[in-house]
Amino acid sequence: MKNGMNDPAGRTAERLRAAHRVLALTGAGISAESGIPTFRGKEGWWRKEDPTRLATQAAFDRDPAYVWEWYQYRRGLVREAEPNPGHQALADLERAGKEVLVATQNVDDLHERAGSRNVAHIHGSIWRVRCERCRRESHDPTHPFPTLPPRCQHCQGLLRPAVVWFGEMLAHEPIIRIENFISGGVDVALVIGTEAVFGYIQGFAMAARRAGALLVEVNPGQTPLSDAADVRLQGPAGAVLPRLVG
Ligand code: OAD
Question: Catalytic residue among 123, 139, 143, 172, which?
């Protein structure tokens, strides 16, 4: 790989080699090469399904079994999927001694399975459930559930996926972790495989840039953040990221 200012990948690789603190903001695109569909892409969920029927509290109240069928199907996909070279490259950065925070919108666990240890799940985890009645939340890897919707073992209330649905507040814990990380300084911020439709995702990227980061977008397409990026690497994460880290 060439180095120098005219070679964006080389410039990024150089900055990464020198970096102490790296923020990776990831979205569905990083897991696409592991066989997990995105939301807004060509084969994305929201091209064929109505989000208000699957990812809102109102949809769940109306038909919890229907919503659970979709989550159960996706839990099966995630369980069968393997981390790809994109996930591995981020874990390699951490293994190389960098302080890395992976701030992901993904509800899968492929970053953790690749070896990343500092992962903030902005939209929750597909493996966590929360009781609608007693509010207990827990990790529950049962697959498949014997009946849908599953019930709370403590109070028999309805369990819902502990993920963030449209119209809901984000959980505080991951947000505070991301904000604290950014305020400690960031050398490189990688925005990978996200359409960046939410203001808070754009906000984290811009805050990292203000905190000193080289803002790098890894995405085969164009997003609302593309124009603000210092470097755009247009390709699939599984091909681009290993070349930056290797
Ligand atoms: P999207 O499906 O909106 O966007 C996926 C992005 O990944 C697009 O910009 C693609 O161009 C890019 N992409 C596709 N394949 C890629 C690859 N191999 N490597 C790199 N990039 C690739 O997914 P998100 O931005 O993650 O939230 O969506 C954000 C949120 O919207 C999701 O967490 C979900 C959804 O509604 C909720 O359900 C609350």
Answer: 123
- Position 2 scores a pLDDT of 41
Both 74 and 134 in one domain: the answer is yes
What pLDDT is recorded for position 84?
Answer: 98
Number of the ligand 1 atom closest to the C-alpha atom of 44: 2
Ranges in the chain, pLDDT < 70: 1-5
Q: Which of 124, 105, 127, 128 lies closest to 194 in space, CA to CA?
A: 105
Does 115 share its domain with 9? yes
Ligand 1 centroid–CA 193 distance in Å is: 6
Cα separation, 174 vs 26, whole angstroms: 14
Note down the domain range covering 113.
1-35+82-123+169-246
**Do 131 and 142 reside in the same domain of the chain?**
yes
Are 141 and 238 contained in the same domain?
no
How large is the greatest C-alpha to C-alpha distance in the chain, in angstroms?
A: 62
